[in-house]
TrEMBL record:
Coiled coil feature spans: none
One annotated GO molecular function: oxidoreductase activity
The organism of origin for this protein: Trichloromonas acetexigens
Residue numbers binding [2Fe-2S] cluster: 88, 93, 129, 133
Note describing how the cofactor binds: Binds 1 [2Fe-2S] cluster.
Cited InterPro entries: NADP_DH_HndA-like, NuoE-like, NuoE_dom, NuoE_N, Thioredoxin-like_sf
Gene (UniProt): nuoE
Gene3D superfamilies: Glutaredoxin, NADH-quinone oxidoreductase subunit E
Keywords annotated in UniProt: 2Fe-2S, Iron, Iron-sulfur, Metal-binding, Oxidoreductase
Keyword Oxidoreductase in record: yes
Enzyme class: oxidoreductase
Protein name: NADH-quinone oxidoreductase subunit NuoE
Cofactor requirement: [2Fe-2S] cluster
């Protein structure tokens, strides 16, 4: 478990949001997937205590839930940053210096692929082609796309999001 996850785990997870989600879906057939999706929307990931709560209230084994969570890449068992910085590592971006962009992110925020800053503000992800090869090298921060990235532009983007809440 990462340091960030350990730290978050030490803090109590408020289960109110998860209980509200379960209340909404509990009578629905096949409730598990929508419950997991909605719980992730509430917390940004699936905290371990919510797995046990869901298991108890939906009458399924925790192992079944972990099976679903590990099968579907959309679910995250560890906390993630508010801003997900995706660095495209596809061929076009690679050729145009994606490695340098990833290195800059690592140097400035101390996070590599699938790592999250301690303040839970940023998570880095190295991803395959995101379909904007004409603007290579490309990054995304949540839903915003930034193309023709340079080290200087990377610093500007990082500074912009650091300044935001
Ligand atoms: S290779 Fe990066 S957008 Fe296609």
């Amino acid at each position: 478990m990462s340091e960030v996850a350990e730290k978050v785990k030490e803090e109590e997870v408020d289960l109110t949001g998860a209980n509200e989600v379960i209340d909404k879906y509990i009578d629905m057939k096949g409730a598990l997937m929508p419950v997991l999706q909605a719980v992730q929307d509430v917390y940004g990931y699936i905290p371990e205590p919510t797995v046990h709560l869901i298991a108890e209230r939906l009458n399924v084994y925790p192992s079944q839930i972990y099976g679903v969570l590990t099968f579907y890449a959309q679910f995250h068992l560890e906390p993630r940053g508010k801003y997900i910085v995706r660095v495209c590592m596809g061929t076009a971006c690679h050729v145009k210096g994606a490695g340098r962009i990833a290195d800059t992110l690592k140097d400035r925020l101390k996070i590599g692929h699938a790592e999250t800053t301690e303040d839970l503000k940023f998570t880095a992800e190295y991803v395959a082609c995101i379909g904007a090869c004409g603007m290579a090298p490309v990054i995304m921060v949540n839903d915003a796309t930034y193309g023709s990235m340079t080290v200087q532009k990377m610093d500007e983007v990082i500074a912009k999001y650091k300044a935001m809440d």
